[in-house]
Here is the input.
Amino acid sequence: MNDPQRVNIGKQHPASYKALTALSSEVQEAAAAVGLDPLLVELLKIRASQINGCAFCLRMHTRDALKVGENPDRIAVLPGWEETGYFSETDRAALRLTEAVTRVSDGHVSDEDYNAAAAVLTEDQISAITWLAILMNAFNRLAITSRYPVES
Here is the structure.
């Protein structure tokens, strides 16, 4: 999968990459400040990465989730979260919003999806989750475009 002709855009424009990593720190702090469970934050990162097909980010955030104590079963059923009893109402609202933001080209973030999130989450949580999805989509695109290596 490694293509020597691919430019690693993070290395090519390090100031831009540094700005993205600084944004990542801000988003993490915002998520913590609004009371989002660190396990949920990792699941949201994984879910966006699943949708985008970013193997590099999937491996990284799955490992991170396990390190902070996430249940492997919840990670395993994450693509089918709507069909399981593993996720709380807050988890479900956050996952639905993350999916809508990640799939914005499929019809934007619908009023139905937004209102479902707003029924459960605070405005601050909606904002933090949206920023988290935006950030993960950016990192996914960076890793996919540059073909970050994922080796066993």
In short: The radius of gyration is 16 Å.
